[in-house]
Design goal:
Length: about 375
Protein backbone atom coordinates (compact mmCIF):
# COMPACT_ATOMS: atom_id res chain seq x y z
CA UNK A 1 0.00 0.00 0.00
CA UNK A 2 1.39 3.42 -1.00
CA UNK A 3 2.27 5.70 1.92
CA UNK A 4 -0.08 8.62 2.41
CA UNK A 5 1.31 12.11 1.84
CA UNK A 6 2.01 13.97 5.07
CA UNK A 7 0.22 17.20 5.93
CA UNK A 8 1.59 19.38 8.72
CA UNK A 9 -0.70 21.33 11.03
CA UNK A 10 0.25 24.69 12.46
CA UNK A 11 -2.20 25.55 15.24
CA UNK A 12 -2.50 29.12 16.52
CA UNK A 13 -4.12 29.39 19.94
CA UNK A 14 -4.57 26.72 22.60
CA UNK A 15 -7.64 27.90 24.49
CA UNK A 16 -11.11 26.37 24.32
CA UNK A 17 -11.07 26.00 20.54
CA UNK A 18 -7.34 25.31 20.15
CA UNK A 19 -7.79 22.21 22.28
CA UNK A 20 -11.00 21.25 20.43
CA UNK A 21 -9.20 21.50 17.06
CA UNK A 22 -6.20 19.50 18.28
CA UNK A 23 -8.53 16.79 19.63
CA UNK A 24 -10.56 16.93 16.43
CA UNK A 25 -7.53 16.22 14.23
CA UNK A 26 -6.26 13.56 16.64
CA UNK A 27 -9.63 11.78 16.66
CA UNK A 28 -10.08 12.16 12.90
CA UNK A 29 -6.86 10.31 12.21
CA UNK A 30 -7.96 7.36 14.36
CA UNK A 31 -11.60 7.26 13.27
CA UNK A 32 -11.48 8.00 9.55
CA UNK A 33 -9.36 6.81 6.63
CA UNK A 34 -7.92 10.27 5.99
CA UNK A 35 -6.18 11.17 2.73
CA UNK A 36 -3.11 12.37 4.68
CA UNK A 37 -0.84 11.23 7.45
CA UNK A 38 -1.09 14.13 9.90
CA UNK A 39 1.97 15.80 11.39
CA UNK A 40 1.16 17.82 14.51
CA UNK A 41 3.99 20.17 13.55
CA UNK A 42 3.82 23.48 15.44
CA UNK A 43 1.65 25.18 18.03
CA UNK A 44 1.80 28.96 18.48
CA UNK A 45 0.43 30.99 21.35
CA UNK A 46 1.06 34.41 22.88
CA UNK A 47 4.32 33.41 24.55
CA UNK A 48 6.82 30.59 24.27
CA UNK A 49 6.14 29.09 27.70
CA UNK A 50 2.39 28.86 27.19
CA UNK A 51 2.90 27.47 23.68
CA UNK A 52 5.39 24.89 24.99
CA UNK A 53 3.02 23.65 27.69
CA UNK A 54 0.14 23.42 25.23
CA UNK A 55 2.28 21.70 22.57
CA UNK A 56 3.30 19.03 25.09
CA UNK A 57 -0.26 18.49 26.27
CA UNK A 58 -1.80 18.38 22.80
CA UNK A 59 0.96 16.42 21.07
CA UNK A 60 2.63 19.02 18.83
CA UNK A 61 6.32 18.55 17.99
CA UNK A 62 7.36 22.19 18.31
CA UNK A 63 6.11 25.38 19.97
CA UNK A 64 6.54 29.08 19.34
CA UNK A 65 5.52 32.35 20.96
CA UNK A 66 5.31 34.01 17.54
CA UNK A 67 2.59 32.79 15.14
CA UNK A 68 4.49 34.25 12.18
CA UNK A 69 7.02 31.42 12.59
CA UNK A 70 4.39 29.12 11.02
CA UNK A 71 4.27 31.06 7.78
CA UNK A 72 7.64 30.14 6.31
CA UNK A 73 7.71 26.69 7.85
CA UNK A 74 7.79 24.18 4.98
CA UNK A 75 6.44 21.50 7.33
CA UNK A 76 3.19 23.41 7.84
CA UNK A 77 0.52 22.82 5.19
CA UNK A 78 -2.53 23.98 7.16
CA UNK A 79 -2.70 27.06 9.36
CA UNK A 80 -5.41 26.56 11.97
CA UNK A 81 -6.58 29.80 13.62
CA UNK A 82 -8.32 29.57 17.01
CA UNK A 83 -7.54 33.03 18.36
CA UNK A 84 -9.95 35.87 19.26
CA UNK A 85 -11.94 37.18 16.29
CA UNK A 86 -10.01 40.42 15.81
CA UNK A 87 -6.85 38.43 14.97
CA UNK A 88 -8.39 36.15 12.31
CA UNK A 89 -7.99 38.54 9.39
CA UNK A 90 -4.30 39.31 9.80
CA UNK A 91 -3.40 35.68 10.49
CA UNK A 92 -5.50 34.24 7.66
CA UNK A 93 -4.28 36.74 5.06
CA UNK A 94 -0.65 36.05 6.02
CA UNK A 95 -1.23 32.28 5.78
CA UNK A 96 -3.02 32.55 2.43
CA UNK A 97 -0.16 34.68 1.06
CA UNK A 98 2.19 31.75 1.66
CA UNK A 99 -0.17 29.35 -0.13
CA UNK A 100 -1.18 27.40 2.98
CA UNK A 101 -4.70 26.08 3.53
CA UNK A 102 -6.57 27.84 6.33
CA UNK A 103 -8.96 26.56 8.98
CA UNK A 104 -10.42 29.39 11.03
CA UNK A 105 -12.83 29.68 13.90
CA UNK A 106 -16.08 31.60 13.62
CA UNK A 107 -17.07 34.37 13.29
CA UNK A 108 -14.70 34.66 10.34
CA UNK A 109 -13.89 38.30 11.11
CA UNK A 110 -15.32 41.25 13.05
CA UNK A 111 -16.81 42.81 9.90
CA UNK A 112 -18.20 41.58 6.60
CA UNK A 113 -15.64 43.74 4.78
CA UNK A 114 -12.78 41.87 6.47
CA UNK A 115 -14.51 38.52 5.88
CA UNK A 116 -14.86 39.37 2.21
CA UNK A 117 -11.19 40.33 1.92
CA UNK A 118 -10.20 36.98 3.47
CA UNK A 119 -12.59 35.04 1.21
CA UNK A 120 -11.42 36.73 -1.97
CA UNK A 121 -7.75 36.30 -1.05
CA UNK A 122 -8.26 32.57 -0.41
CA UNK A 123 -10.20 32.06 -3.64
CA UNK A 124 -7.62 33.98 -5.68
CA UNK A 125 -4.81 31.91 -4.13
CA UNK A 126 -6.71 28.65 -4.69
CA UNK A 127 -6.25 27.45 -1.12
CA UNK A 128 -8.90 25.46 0.76
CA UNK A 129 -10.64 27.07 3.69
CA UNK A 130 -12.84 25.86 6.53
CA UNK A 131 -14.78 27.82 9.14
CA UNK A 132 -15.77 26.32 12.49
CA UNK A 133 -19.56 26.22 12.25
CA UNK A 134 -19.24 22.78 13.82
CA UNK A 135 -22.94 22.30 14.60
CA UNK A 136 -23.51 21.76 10.87
CA UNK A 137 -21.32 18.64 11.10
CA UNK A 138 -23.72 16.78 13.37
CA UNK A 139 -24.99 13.61 11.64
CA UNK A 140 -28.51 14.50 12.85
CA UNK A 141 -28.30 17.92 11.20
CA UNK A 142 -27.18 16.18 8.01
CA UNK A 143 -30.20 13.89 8.39
CA UNK A 144 -32.46 16.94 8.78
CA UNK A 145 -31.01 18.48 5.66
CA UNK A 146 -31.51 15.23 3.75
CA UNK A 147 -35.13 14.95 4.98
CA UNK A 148 -35.79 18.53 3.81
CA UNK A 149 -34.06 18.01 0.45
CA UNK A 150 -36.00 14.79 -0.06
CA UNK A 151 -39.29 16.64 0.41
CA UNK A 152 -40.21 14.63 3.50
CA UNK A 153 -41.63 17.66 5.33
CA UNK A 154 -42.96 19.32 2.19
CA UNK A 155 -42.48 22.99 1.42
CA UNK A 156 -40.52 24.83 4.12
CA UNK A 157 -42.67 27.57 5.60
CA UNK A 158 -41.09 28.62 8.86
CA UNK A 159 -37.84 28.47 10.88
CA UNK A 160 -37.42 29.25 14.59
CA UNK A 161 -33.88 29.28 15.96
CA UNK A 162 -32.09 30.07 19.22
CA UNK A 163 -28.50 30.00 20.32
CA UNK A 164 -28.54 30.76 24.03
CA UNK A 165 -25.98 30.14 26.76
CA UNK A 166 -25.41 31.73 30.16
CA UNK A 167 -21.67 32.30 30.42
CA UNK A 168 -22.16 36.10 30.68
CA UNK A 169 -25.36 35.99 32.80
CA UNK A 170 -23.50 36.82 36.01
CA UNK A 171 -23.16 40.64 36.17
CA UNK A 172 -19.83 40.09 37.94
CA UNK A 173 -18.42 37.99 35.07
CA UNK A 174 -15.28 39.94 34.19
CA UNK A 175 -14.25 41.59 30.96
CA UNK A 176 -13.06 39.31 28.16
CA UNK A 177 -12.08 39.84 24.53
CA UNK A 178 -15.65 38.89 23.64
CA UNK A 179 -16.83 42.27 25.04
CA UNK A 180 -14.41 44.28 22.91
CA UNK A 181 -16.35 45.94 20.06
CA UNK A 182 -13.23 45.40 17.92
CA UNK A 183 -14.16 41.69 17.93
CA UNK A 184 -17.27 42.50 15.92
CA UNK A 185 -20.13 42.59 18.41
CA UNK A 186 -21.59 40.67 21.31
CA UNK A 187 -23.92 37.69 21.57
CA UNK A 188 -25.15 38.07 17.99
CA UNK A 189 -21.64 37.94 16.47
CA UNK A 190 -20.45 35.25 18.87
CA UNK A 191 -23.46 32.91 19.11
CA UNK A 192 -25.91 34.32 16.58
CA UNK A 193 -23.40 33.53 13.81
CA UNK A 194 -23.84 29.81 14.61
CA UNK A 195 -27.64 29.84 14.41
CA UNK A 196 -27.58 32.02 11.28
CA UNK A 197 -25.30 29.43 9.67
CA UNK A 198 -27.76 26.70 10.68
CA UNK A 199 -30.72 28.70 9.34
CA UNK A 200 -28.97 29.05 5.97
CA UNK A 201 -27.90 25.38 5.98
CA UNK A 202 -31.48 24.17 6.46
CA UNK A 203 -33.76 26.83 4.98
CA UNK A 204 -31.47 28.48 2.43
CA UNK A 205 -30.42 32.08 1.78
CA UNK A 206 -31.94 34.93 3.78
CA UNK A 207 -33.35 37.79 1.70
CA UNK A 208 -34.17 40.40 4.35
CA UNK A 209 -34.18 40.87 8.09
CA UNK A 210 -34.93 43.19 10.98
CA UNK A 211 -33.26 43.05 14.38
CA UNK A 212 -33.39 44.29 17.95
CA UNK A 213 -30.30 44.09 20.16
CA UNK A 214 -29.85 44.97 23.82
CA UNK A 215 -27.09 45.29 26.39
CA UNK A 216 -28.53 43.99 29.64
CA UNK A 217 -25.46 44.44 31.86
CA UNK A 218 -24.07 47.92 31.21
CA UNK A 219 -20.72 47.54 32.96
CA UNK A 220 -18.54 44.71 34.14
CA UNK A 221 -15.46 44.32 36.36
CA UNK A 222 -12.23 44.69 34.41
CA UNK A 223 -10.81 41.72 36.34
CA UNK A 224 -12.50 38.99 38.38
CA UNK A 225 -13.35 40.31 41.85
CA UNK A 226 -11.91 43.77 41.09
CA UNK A 227 -13.60 47.11 41.81
CA UNK A 228 -12.64 48.84 38.57
CA UNK A 229 -15.50 48.56 36.06
CA UNK A 230 -15.72 49.10 32.33
CA UNK A 231 -18.76 50.04 30.26
CA UNK A 232 -20.08 47.33 27.94
CA UNK A 233 -21.03 48.46 24.43
CA UNK A 234 -21.90 45.13 22.81
CA UNK A 235 -25.17 43.20 22.85
CA UNK A 236 -26.01 40.59 25.48
CA UNK A 237 -29.12 39.50 23.61
CA UNK A 238 -30.33 39.91 20.02
CA UNK A 239 -33.52 38.94 18.19
CA UNK A 240 -34.04 38.81 14.46
CA UNK A 241 -37.01 38.37 12.14
CA UNK A 242 -36.06 36.77 8.83
CA UNK A 243 -37.48 36.37 5.36
CA UNK A 244 -35.86 33.59 3.36
CA UNK A 245 -35.37 33.75 -0.39
CA UNK A 246 -37.65 30.69 -0.80
CA UNK A 247 -40.57 32.57 0.78
CA UNK A 248 -40.31 31.01 4.26
CA UNK A 249 -40.21 33.32 7.28
CA UNK A 250 -38.26 32.92 10.48
CA UNK A 251 -37.09 34.28 13.77
CA UNK A 252 -34.01 33.75 15.87
CA UNK A 253 -32.48 34.76 19.17
CA UNK A 254 -28.89 34.91 20.34
CA UNK A 255 -28.13 35.35 24.02
CA UNK A 256 -25.22 34.82 26.40
CA UNK A 257 -27.27 35.84 29.45
CA UNK A 258 -29.89 33.06 29.24
CA UNK A 259 -29.58 32.00 32.88
CA UNK A 260 -29.49 28.20 33.12
CA UNK A 261 -29.00 27.56 29.43
CA UNK A 262 -25.68 25.89 28.66
CA UNK A 263 -25.97 24.99 24.98
CA UNK A 264 -29.37 25.85 23.56
CA UNK A 265 -28.47 25.70 19.88
CA UNK A 266 -32.05 24.85 19.11
CA UNK A 267 -34.21 25.08 16.03
CA UNK A 268 -37.57 24.06 14.67
CA UNK A 269 -38.42 23.91 11.01
CA UNK A 270 -42.01 23.63 9.81
CA UNK A 271 -43.07 22.44 6.38
CA UNK A 272 -46.36 21.77 4.63
CA UNK A 273 -46.11 18.03 5.38
CA UNK A 274 -44.10 17.82 8.54
CA UNK A 275 -41.73 19.39 11.01
CA UNK A 276 -38.30 18.75 12.52
CA UNK A 277 -37.17 19.78 16.01
CA UNK A 278 -33.60 19.76 17.31
CA UNK A 279 -31.63 20.95 20.30
CA UNK A 280 -27.88 20.71 20.78
CA UNK A 281 -28.57 19.91 24.45
CA UNK A 282 -29.71 16.48 23.17
CA UNK A 283 -27.80 16.49 19.94
CA UNK A 284 -27.87 12.76 19.23
CA UNK A 285 -31.61 13.02 18.66
CA UNK A 286 -33.88 14.46 16.00
CA UNK A 287 -37.64 14.79 16.36
CA UNK A 288 -39.72 14.34 13.24
CA UNK A 289 -43.45 14.87 12.65
CA UNK A 290 -45.06 13.74 9.43
CA UNK A 291 -48.55 14.44 8.12
CA UNK A 292 -48.09 11.21 6.14
CA UNK A 293 -48.70 9.25 9.34
CA UNK A 294 -52.35 8.33 9.58
CA UNK A 295 -54.68 10.49 11.68
CA UNK A 296 -54.82 9.29 15.25
CA UNK A 297 -51.21 8.08 15.08
CA UNK A 298 -49.50 11.40 14.38
CA UNK A 299 -46.95 12.84 16.75
CA UNK A 300 -43.27 13.71 16.98
CA UNK A 301 -41.09 10.60 16.87
CA UNK A 302 -37.54 10.66 18.21
CA UNK A 303 -34.80 9.32 15.96
CA UNK A 304 -31.57 8.44 17.81
CA UNK A 305 -28.22 8.83 16.07
CA UNK A 306 -26.77 5.54 14.88
CA UNK A 307 -24.48 4.02 12.25
CA UNK A 308 -27.08 4.75 9.53
CA UNK A 309 -26.34 8.44 10.04
CA UNK A 310 -22.95 9.02 8.42
CA UNK A 311 -20.35 9.31 9.95
CA UNK A 312 -21.68 8.22 13.37
CA UNK A 313 -20.72 4.63 12.58
CA UNK A 314 -17.07 5.56 12.25
CA UNK A 315 -17.11 6.56 15.94
CA UNK A 316 -19.32 3.81 17.33
CA UNK A 317 -20.94 0.69 15.91
CA UNK A 318 -23.89 0.82 18.30
CA UNK A 319 -26.86 3.19 17.82
CA UNK A 320 -27.94 5.49 20.64
CA UNK A 321 -24.56 5.40 22.42
CA UNK A 322 -23.94 9.04 21.36
CA UNK A 323 -21.07 11.09 20.00
CA UNK A 324 -19.83 14.32 21.68
CA UNK A 325 -18.99 17.93 20.91
CA UNK A 326 -15.32 17.28 20.09
CA UNK A 327 -16.42 14.58 17.62
CA UNK A 328 -18.12 17.32 15.57
CA UNK A 329 -14.66 18.89 15.28
CA UNK A 330 -13.27 15.54 14.08
CA UNK A 331 -15.92 15.43 11.33
CA UNK A 332 -15.14 19.06 10.45
CA UNK A 333 -11.41 18.21 10.24
CA UNK A 334 -12.10 15.17 8.04
CA UNK A 335 -14.24 17.18 5.62
CA UNK A 336 -11.56 19.87 5.38
CA UNK A 337 -8.75 17.37 4.79
CA UNK A 338 -10.77 15.59 2.10
CA UNK A 339 -11.36 18.91 0.33
CA UNK A 340 -7.63 19.66 0.47
CA UNK A 341 -7.01 16.24 -1.13
CA UNK A 342 -9.33 17.18 -4.01
CA UNK A 343 -12.50 15.57 -2.70
CA UNK A 344 -15.88 17.31 -2.51
CA UNK A 345 -15.69 20.67 -0.74
CA UNK A 346 -18.43 20.22 1.86
CA UNK A 347 -17.64 23.45 3.64
CA UNK A 348 -18.59 25.60 5.35
CA UNK A 349 -15.75 27.60 3.84
CA UNK A 350 -14.68 31.25 4.10
CA UNK A 351 -17.35 32.26 1.57
CA UNK A 352 -20.00 30.87 3.88
CA UNK A 353 -18.34 32.69 6.79
CA UNK A 354 -18.58 35.88 4.75
CA UNK A 355 -22.28 35.25 3.92
CA UNK A 356 -23.03 34.81 7.63
CA UNK A 357 -20.99 37.88 8.58
CA UNK A 358 -22.97 39.96 6.09
CA UNK A 359 -26.12 38.97 8.01
CA UNK A 360 -24.52 39.84 11.36
CA UNK A 361 -23.44 43.28 10.09
CA UNK A 362 -26.86 43.87 8.54
CA UNK A 363 -28.65 42.89 11.76
CA UNK A 364 -26.61 45.42 13.76
CA UNK A 365 -27.41 48.07 11.14
CA UNK A 366 -31.10 47.13 11.21
CA UNK A 367 -31.18 47.41 15.01
CA UNK A 368 -29.49 50.80 14.79
CA UNK A 369 -31.80 52.12 12.07
CA UNK A 370 -34.93 50.39 13.38
CA UNK A 371 -36.11 48.97 10.06
CA UNK A 372 -36.12 45.96 7.75
CA UNK A 373 -33.09 45.70 5.44
CA UNK A 374 -32.55 43.69 2.26
CA UNK A 375 -29.48 41.44 2.17
N1 LIG B 1 -16.99 26.76 17.02
C1 LIG B 1 -17.32 26.89 18.29
O1 LIG B 1 -18.19 26.20 18.79
C2 LIG B 1 -16.58 27.91 19.11
C3 LIG B 1 -16.65 27.87 20.52
C4 LIG B 1 -15.90 28.81 21.23
C5 LIG B 1 -15.12 29.76 20.58
N2 LIG B 1 -15.11 29.78 19.21
C6 LIG B 1 -14.29 30.78 18.49
O2 LIG B 1 -12.92 30.38 18.63
C7 LIG B 1 -12.08 31.53 18.72
C8 LIG B 1 -11.31 31.46 20.03
O3 LIG B 1 -12.21 31.34 21.12
P1 LIG B 1 -11.80 30.54 22.44
O4 LIG B 1 -13.03 30.40 23.24
O5 LIG B 1 -11.01 29.34 22.10
O6 LIG B 1 -10.86 31.63 23.12
P2 LIG B 1 -9.76 31.42 24.22
O7 LIG B 1 -9.58 32.74 24.85
O8 LIG B 1 -10.09 30.24 25.08
O9 LIG B 1 -8.45 31.03 23.40
C9 LIG B 1 -7.80 31.93 22.56
C10 LIG B 1 -6.37 31.46 22.38
O10 LIG B 1 -5.70 32.34 21.47
C11 LIG B 1 -4.45 32.70 22.04
N3 LIG B 1 -3.97 33.96 21.47
C12 LIG B 1 -4.46 35.20 21.69
N4 LIG B 1 -3.73 36.10 21.01
C13 LIG B 1 -2.79 35.41 20.33
C14 LIG B 1 -1.70 35.79 19.48
N5 LIG B 1 -1.48 37.05 19.16
N6 LIG B 1 -0.91 34.80 18.97
C15 LIG B 1 -1.12 33.51 19.29
N7 LIG B 1 -2.11 33.10 20.12
C16 LIG B 1 -2.93 34.04 20.62
C17 LIG B 1 -4.75 32.76 23.52
O11 LIG B 1 -3.57 32.78 24.33
C18 LIG B 1 -5.57 31.48 23.68
O12 LIG B 1 -4.75 30.34 23.75
C19 LIG B 1 -13.01 32.74 18.61
O13 LIG B 1 -13.06 33.18 17.28
C20 LIG B 1 -14.37 32.18 19.04
O14 LIG B 1 -15.46 32.88 18.50
C21 LIG B 1 -15.81 28.88 18.49
Amino acid sequence: MAAKPTLGIGLIGSGFMGKAHALGFATARRVFDLPFALDFAVLADVDAALAERAAQALGFRRATGNWRDLLDDPEVGVVDITTPNMLHREMALAAIATGKHVYCEKPLAPTAAAAREMTEAAEAAGVQTQIGFNYLKNPMVTLARDLIAGGEIGTIRSFRGVHAEDYMADAEAPWTWRLDPADGGGALADLGSHILATARHLAGPIASLTADVATAIGERPVAAGGVERRAVAVDDVARLFLRFANGATGSLEASWIATGRKMQHEWEIYGSEGAILFTQERFNELRLYSTRDRPGRRGFRTIFAGPEHEPYGAFCVAPGHQIGFNDLKAIEARDFLEAIAGGPAKGPDFREGYEVQKLVDLAYRSAHEGRWLEV
